[in-house]
């Protein structure tokens, strides 16, 4: 027999706290202090249905994994649960109106257009989670801006009737040199989550990297693959290595073809835009809190990442090599010295990346690190010992071409597909990928190359790449600067005459 | 006996489609799928008079060339054709008001002024076609911006009472070192089209380059020439070389004095501003199209260019040399290595050009490529083996002087004359050319040169030319960036007192 | 028996001027011409209570020190003093409303947020005094902007589970490598003044530098220290060295652990924003003053600084070394040559500083001077002979990390704590310091360092640091530039038809 | 007996044209076609009183010099002249209101403030004449911007109690190293004209350079000098050398101490802002003029300069040396090669200048040319053979200090004094000069120099000076650029529901 809403509703305090998720009740009283996202967020739903909040942040198997069976209280008769009447905020009403008026998919001509539309139609918190980055978001913007400091030196009068821009990554043949990189919490953008990306990747024959922090479970994403579609695993390494081993070996068994270990996130970054979007005013009647403590509810990312091991180091690499035969790629390398260490460690690849600007502010763009790396590798004769990928800021096929000219094997694209998915679902991602292919074909022709291996460093002019003179604008510092002004006009009494 | 409007109107579907052009009916049913601009645009006029749409995009002999005689149905009694009552859009009404208020021609003091006026008075689609360029239009703007990174080192106390800035190009004496470069679809700007440019060029004794994609026919433009006026032919090479041969040999017979082969356009670029201006909303009741296909109606340019051969290569040059005695110039060269190849191939000149920013985005400005090219030519002793022209972004006589100081033989100017023509017709083009001459005379004096051959590299400081630190702004990326903000003020209930 | 308000009120002219301060009357008639801030400001309060104006600008012992006892007229019965009814200006009303709505402290996520809030809620004159700087305030902004031209080269796969960013400065162990630098007139921001900074510094275990021009007296600030809290003395050297000697030796006796001699202020700078905020219109009926004289009321700074000795020179250093055993640090050094002189002079440290942009406009940022200095010191083997501090523009822990990578021992932070104090009092300063610690911990992890001594120059890319191409904008010059415009539309009479 | 207004009024056509100037009538019928400013402007006053228009543009002796005596018709009874009732335009009314509200002189804290006030209160045409420059006014703005790319390396701990910034120029002792450079048409800004500058220069003990194109006559300006005040003569060389000789020798006889020959103006530049301000709409009923001719009424400058000799060359220098003993200085030199020629020619000095940006657009700033020049002179041991002055863009004492550090003997300041004079008359100029002195004293102290000869190149960092990456913005090109936009929202019919 099912529980009723009324019964659950009685357990609505920190000392006795039940919540409903997907039609089943759970006693989370003892779990409260352990919740990585803080107890405040759970208490908001004490005695109530928490499904909507729970859904995009947790993969479906979370409760099974982290809450002991005795706390699983069984099914609830949902017809007896009082549906909370949330009044639509004016902000939300405006969003719904914007959705009414959103452009047709065919009006999106490039990847930035999807971002513009997503910003208008996404929920505020979801937009903030996807779009935010570290500190002043300088690196976030530098990532794209850096490409604008690279100019082309195209060849003309090359027969480019037939252009083929397929290539291979870690041994997998792909139709175009990008892959869908791992991004967390796909269901914030679309209720179906990451499996939409799986389907789009299949259609366009590109690799998808599965995120540790997906909204869908790992198996759901693997199951969504079709035929011999290739997927990779992005891994945040757990403090408990047994858990990590289980994850890695399960992925290999399920057929994952690459293990991308994130190395730039011993601690997840503070993202102030996300924090500000999550802030809720406790009200003016509440005694103002003293400043002694920094608020710990720093958005979704911090909450879900407390398990990540800050002690991960080069010394761990041999262990990974001992537990899997998948090629290992270090994701988040940011200096040529570490690329050389990676070669020495015998891994198959590195992703030059600054985590989309979400970790260390003022990390250089990956394209700049690439331009630093390849000449050193070539001088040491190591350029074929390791595959170099980059991600961050790629929005146009010209960006991809530049990366390949400079020696990258391929590029990862993350946010743009999330935005396309959030605005238009699977069709959006599909069109985004097709636009990249159209641009790619055109640009290969215009630069005078018929195959990927014809792209080389002589086709780009990078002399301005290192010139950070014009940094992306420092919005906060600019906003607080009170500019000098010239003397103002005076107010004078009527009738008073001045002479010039 | 003529056909009546009613008779034509019956054939108004994809399966049976007649259209009227210039008072004559044509059966285009079978031609529909072959139309380079897509069938949608023709079907809009099925059973109707399509003249107004047809006119600027096609040269007058198009129907004779591409539609077999049996489909030419003969004259239509135009008095029987129902004139469609197109309601004037508010946008169009505002444009007509702007035309009422347009400045007098004498108020235009420089070439940019014409662009400002043209933008106000041209039809939206025509403006979009002329003004648009590739991707984010970075190269478009870099073309002019690059000149702003070159500074003068003028000589003083030179007797500059008599200044002569005439020169020769491919053996032709001209009064000033610019030529009217080829630009497509002149009738979008003025019903008379390219012949207006012919007349202005004659008056000012400069060369006109005739575009393959003119609205007027080649012969109309040649016929408009006066006396021994010199014209050149710009050539898009057809996949069918027989057609190309016919065009080239006809031009030579008609007296063309130069063959400019476009080498930077194996495929015409995507111009998103143009695409957006052409987009028509199919209406909210239409089922939203899925994203599987990229919309192919990418504006006029793609439509009219499908014949261009992407296989054109260096191997074709000897053939061109075998079919004509005209000097051959390669238009669209973008790296010094290809200039050297051109010398080797024995052609008479190259135009350093990125096609007005309409092809490969992030192509460098032609003035930068020029600064790269000439020192290499001089070091190899080849500077007299070939004439170097540049085009793109030239708006002031100072731009021309800079190009000549750096070694160009002359510069091509395109859009500014189109804008002058679109706003003020022949008088506009005439004044635009005169303004350049006035500026040229003044600037020759002020830099301390009395003849073109006195301009040299010591008169310019190009140290900043390669400095792309400050790229033209990335409008789309800037527009979608959601800036960090400081904490907002709070809404408080009346009567609540806070203490500072 | 106390004086009455009426009695005092009689002495209300320049020839006979009494004022009330903190309930006691003073005869300042003879002192008027000697007042460093000019007599005008005193005369405004002739015969009245001047406490509110006096308070933040003068330390409590000022009257005892500078006005002979015979002029101390004794207590006033304050109930008999007519309280002046100052009408609240609309500007002040708006400020009070802004205070009502000010954000909660928890909504401040970084140091710039405090500045934004302070600007909204501070009194105009106080804000102007704190925020203003020299000339066009270019150096003010360059100070922070310079950090944005330094990029990180982080290490990955370093075990950063345990991060310790404590260090020592002049032998004192501190929890984080910043100190509270000296800033004048703390009571302008908060009635309690500098002692709030003392308490916050104690809590966070950082050093406070006590300013010569504090609103609180030196002893008040020393008394506010708790336990073995370390404080330093910032010294403006008096023309009368006996006074200076007294100050220094008193400080040493009270336990100060460092003497920071300001060397960049032989004369205090003109700060036009401050001057403009202080300007009061003498009214339209007053005869317009001729331009012969520059207005001397240049804000608080000039007024309180007339005692500073412009003759201070290197020759004075041995004397300082003879009168104190405190470590001596020269504050305001701006070129490597002077750092070498400081080593030679045997002082213990220098602060590379441009006085927060308040002195010589176009002084370089301290971080740039640091980058110039350390390689020279290292080459000469002097890097351990002297401690190098910097201040100016530090707003983020990334700024601190950059300074330490480049060789600084620590950084001084001034304005941000004043802003935090002005907006939120002690809690504000506390939170500001905590935010820096949180950022510091995160950034140490993300750059791959577990201790301060692991930070080194290979972790930063300073190639763009010297690139001043993009200077902070020149607001005044921009504001007065009247831009060229395109021809305007014409006004036409109704009915007149133009043809295009 | 005087003429009456009615009699004069009859002669009101091009064939019979009388005008009244300063109460006397003149027959200018025959002179009309010779008028350098065109006949149109005179015909506007045919038969009328032209004094107000005539006054600021012509020196008082113009009519005596250029109109033969027989055309001088004698006195007019001005009471009989109908005073034209000019209706005040709304624009002019607003200006008069702005004058009512203009700030007090004491509120101007720097030279840019005067420019801001002048812009508000000057007549449109006068403002346009003073403020305009060549083409896009890039050089105009670069002149000041270039100083912002130079940063200081100040010395500390220098005894700067006594600071002396007097120096000598061409043997004359001056109190501060600037002079009032020559600027034309002073009466446009103030009815008294250049003599106000003479008086201010006397008061502040600086040299005034008298312009050829002054509104006051040369002798009026000389007569206005007091005591042993030193003045120089700026010379535009006349095609008729006899006139030039007369001018030079008269100046020497009157006591001029320097001859500054302008060498950068063989033809005066086009200043479009000035032209646009002068444009008057001929009305909509007038047949639109064809574009064949460029409007010649290009503002005051062109009109008054037709006598200048474009044939002036190095060969003329010995002749000048033969006719005068005054030191000769070449004003407008712009490259080091020409400075060396000047040394060779044996002149006493050069002014590195681009004529305030009014001549060749994209001329480099004089401070940049100075930085190029001095190292070459020093290497050749010529630095003492010639005095180097610069002008253009100097607005702050820091600008002066930078110029002196780099080797200039002094700097010329022009427009700022015109603006001060136009806004506040003599008092304005006086205050402007005093502000510079106040700034100078402070900055000498802050940079650590007690005398001018202690300023040297080690005190400035010019590494960014040559970096023109960020040019002043190109207003016209920016204004006409139509930016790409993201897809717009759609208008939808009420009731239609879209799904996300």
UniProtKB/TrEMBL annotation, chains A, B, C, D:
Q: Does the keyword Oxidoreductase apply?
A: yes
CDD domains in UniProt = FCB2_FMN (cd02922)
Q: Where is the Cytochrome b5 heme-binding domain?
A: 1-77
Renumbered to this chain, the signal peptide range is none
Any idea of its EC number?
A: 1.1.2.3
Q: Name one Pfam family in it.
A: Cyt-b5
Q: Which residues form a coiled coil?
A: none
Principal location listed in the UniProt entry: mitochondrion
Q: Which reaction does it catalyse?
A: (S)-lactate + 2 Fe(III)-[cytochrome c] = 2 Fe(II)-[cytochrome c] + pyruvate + 2 H(+)
SUPFAM superfamilies documented for this protein? Cytochrome b5-like heme/steroid binding domain, FMN-linked oxidoreductases
Location of the protein in the cell: Mitochondrion intermembrane space
The UniProt keywords, alphabetically, are: Flavoprotein, FMN, Heme, Iron, Metal-binding, Mitochondrion, Oxidoreductase
Q: Does the keyword Zinc apply?
A: no
Q: What class of enzyme is it?
A: oxidoreductase
Positions of the FMN hydroxy acid dehydrogenase domain:
103-465
GO molecular function terms listed in the Swiss-Prot or TrEMBL record: heme binding; L-lactate dehydrogenase (cytochrome) activity; metal ion binding
What quaternary arrangement does the UniProt entry report? Homotetramer.
Family affiliation: Belongs to the cytochrome b5 family. In the N-terminal section; belongs to the cytochrome b5 family.
Protein name according to UniProt: L-lactate dehydrogenase (cytochrome)
